[in-house]
Design brief:
Ferritin, mainly alpha, binds fe (ii) ion
Length: 151
């Protein structure tokens, strides 16, 4: 879905993509934070859970990176990386239940965030928006699966 150009998207939609790209960046770093702590505190279930989610979040991030020519990436990306890393590593130090609870809360937030974006895009049925809707729906299906798995 690299055919979306910046001129096809409204300023509002470009801003929404910037926030989702930042969020997916943060998500990758949440799972990196969990897996870093897992080097010292081995819990096979948490490790499997975080490794699987990390793979999915990397795919999501790649999808946003593939269309980053159509919006400006956030200048606060280093902050999102650090925030994600701490959001993953601190619960991982506290134990498995903290990891699952944190992931549940984060993915619940992301689910609501993507649903709002999809509704916004649906209000303008351009071809570019249609492609974005399909991408966001596919990402959100994974986020919902992550949320359910954490629960
Ligand atoms: Fe994601
Ligand atoms: Fe996710």
């Amino acid at each position: 879905m690299d055919s979306v150009s910046a001129t096809e998207l409204s300023t509002r939609v470009r801003g929404e993509l910037r926030s989702s790209h930042a969020g997916e960046t943060g998500a990758v770093w949440i799972y990196r934070g969990i897996l870093f702590v897992q080097r010292f505190r081995l819990d096979r279930d948490v490790r499997r859970f975080a490794s699987h989610h990390l793979d999915t979040e990397k795919q999501h991030l790649c999808e946003f990176e593939a269309i980053i020519h159509s919006f400006r990436g956030s200048l606060l990306l280093p902050f999102w990386m650090l925030a994600g890393y701490l959001t993953g590593s601190i619960p991982a130090m506290l134990g498995a239940d903290w990891v699952y609870y944190t992931v549940y809360r984060v993915e619940r937030f992301v689910d609501i965030h993507y649903r709002k974006q999809i509704t916004l895009l649906e209000m303008n049925g351009s071809e570019a928006n249609h492609q974005l809707i399909m991408m966001l729906q596919h990402c959100n299906a994974d986020e919902i699966a992550h949320k359910d798995e954490a629960l």
